[in-house]
Write a structure and sequence with these properties.
Length: 110
């Protein structure tokens, strides 16, 4: 959403710092995973390029953060009357449900 990608693959620009802050490293994964949900090649490229792998414990935490992000998005959207954020929250929760139902592992293929 807020990335500027150029023809130079070594450069990535960020244009909106409204939500930028130091955070737990898996939060990056949560947001990118939802956006690459139907594009496994992009997800695999992100995981390879991130330089850090998930072990089983972090995989469980990652799944939980996806669900938590969905709930937090819905709560924020209700408080602020923000339809797009509400839809995003439901997408997070839908993906979380799929992951739990399928017992989807969270190593790069999740």
């Amino acid at each position: 959403r807020n990335w500027v990608v150029t023809d130079d693959p070594s450069r990535l620009g960020i244009i909106d710092f409204g939500q930028s802050r130091p955070d737990y490293w898996l939060i990056d994964w949560v947001h990118v995973r939802l956006e690459t949900r139907h594009e496994p090649q992009l997800w695999a490229a992100f995981v390879r390029g991130y330089g850090r792998a998930l072990d089983e414990a972090h995989g469980r935490l990652f799944r939980g953060l996806i669900g938590l992000t969905g709930v937090a998005s819905l709560a924020w959207a209700k408080q602020h009357g923000h339809l797009a954020r509400q839809e995003e929250g439901w997408r997070y929760l839908s993906f979380f449900d799929e992951m739990v139902a399928s017992k989807m592992p969270c190593l790069p293929e999740c």
